[in-house]
């Protein structure tokens, strides 16, 4: 609508846009979606609404299949919490996903966040902040390991929400031996939690019990009663009972259920084999044998396994990578021989090349071991070890070219042809695990047909090319919200933008495997192949993700002379399905392993322990058998039946959600632009219904409002995203809501609307009175706002709410009425009071449903515990029966007497248990009642009302004029 609106329109629309909605209202998320740089998908809206649909909920498990955007779902929930000013939020993720979450929250949801790790934590404490987790102005992000190490700090904060990604890591929390999961469960016991995992159930129903109990300890009784009740889910009654109890807490949508609005592309694998030259092969065997020695001075005893892994990965990467590492080891040993302190820990020195070391070290969690003192005998061995390392390094530096490098040039030619055949752009991302290998690849490709458009991406990007790209990007986006102020984040954005617009090949270390989106590229080259399948999935997922329009070609290299490398590739390809098939098929089995790091350790152990070809074969055959058990088809079927709803049911629900969400979003965006056009009249040039150019700011300077182009949603790279969270929109809305509006006459111009509104047709030429009130109801620890419109015609006819809302769709003009004009409020008061009562009834009915769900849950929990108590008595009966049978068959008198004494002791214990059973059951009932009473206390409603304005209305323009 381009016609004019009044201050009264503006105030009504501003309150409508910012009012607080109930927890189960899809309209609640309209402002969040409109203010985010994400596409609206109904399954994501549905999952976000499910997460805390009930105000009594202690959390939810979002288990949508991989590729459906669980991060987006969590982002919607986080944005809503942030908008409600519930900002004590913690996000716990695997360490290698911290930066990705930081980037996604910033770029897609404009939410500030900070990564808490050892360094930033210590810096905060040094600055006098002794509670670094209690941040007020940003979302805290940390790894599982860091949260565990700071459990006391975590538990000291009263969190509004805790989000846990890759939550299948917690599924064995029911086992006391799982220290991390149990520590986190204790630290987060009172926090509302949102768990994200595509694989909530792999090998045992107890894993599902573990995840659900992590969220809500009252969802089921103890693990023994769960095992006894649900051991046989093949029985339909048992199966349905379990499914019903999971329903309020678990949500899962499948890829096949959303294909009507999300299209998926395939992964197509290409394998390039190569044979190392004699020098490379000799170097590999020399270093490999060195790493298998029992007594090594070059590697710290406390990190022997981790450092061995790193050296093996560098050895497999390139001769240039291992040459640097060998030089580092020999220098450190010479310092040790001279009794000089090394420059720093070996970990720090290797980290400059192998960038994944810091995160890998955090997850490997090796036991500390004391470093041995150097004896005279050891000095001789140390000198020999130094000589060996220096000879290895000399051999490595004598090798100018690597066979795998030559294979890369051939593979790129084939892969680019394949990508072109599939319609993809001539762009490739090459991943390596080593900075030195990255430098080698730059030299290699600089002398090839692929020299133009090379882009580097690593942890520092201090090379001259990256600096130039960053400087040009910063200048181009100066004064826009593209610039975050963080050089690291902005450098990443600059490099990705350059690669998209001008580059042809991005050569990335592990730093590029997280936090960047490369949907415009459909060729992924694993120059080095990690052993951690989750890292590989993360790499490929940079390109093969939502928004990719072409099939993605995935290139891997295979050393013909290395049997272990070939078997590793076979497992990653065939068992984990990483390189081919539909989007993210690998995630069906990724959760089967305890974690990618555990699998990496199992592979590393084979390389370290096996010296002969037959040993390697036997070890990998055994590992494959173990994976066959872990990745169980039977458990996959159970999971599908237990956690998934019928396709037709889900599709229909999502269709309705899609229609409703689009309608809410469309109305939201139109209302925001209508208010903005009215409030910024004279200060902005409006280009169309979704964009404008701000020429001057009516709200003064220094408030974060930039002059320039604004779009909703953002379509061009140079525009600012206009959203309710933007400082300009906040000023616009606050100004509209704060006006003290006197009684006025508003003339609504039906004819100027230019369309047909059937419910207003009969009001042409009529007049009357209209009132807008704000009614707020607080209950169940949440507040919701309702706008009540009351209206009447001069002939006494009461108007319906739908009619009154459509009044504000019409252009109008207003004039303030004389203060002495009498206003008869009787009918308006009656309508308003009637609406208040109806709203409170609706809220009561809805809360009653929430209460019933919670009461049923507590009833089930109490029954579970009672079953456990009764089970203990049955166990005594069984033992007594066994003892009596043993007494009958006892050969000697002594044995018979001993057995009788045992029987009497068991009977005494059983009788005591019987006497305490009723007391224990009463205690359980009392606990349940106490919980229910606590909930009932939250049901009370606290309501308040406020009149916003009263106007005299009239409507001009006949229906005939409107049609003409």
TrEMBL record:
Keywords: ATP-binding, Coiled coil, Helicase, Hydrolase, Nucleotide-binding. SUPFAM superfamilies: P-loop containing nucleoside triphosphate hydrolases (SSF52540). Residues 408-590 form the Helicase C-terminal domain. The keyword Coiled coil applies. InterPro entries: DEXDc_RapA, Helicase_ATP-bd, Helicase_C-like, P-loop_NTPase, SNF2-like_sf, SNF2/RAD54-like_C, SNF2_N. Residues 866-923 form a coiled coil. One of its GO terms (molecular function) is helicase activity. This is RNA polymerase-associated protein RapA. It comes from Usitatibacter palustris. The gene is rapA.
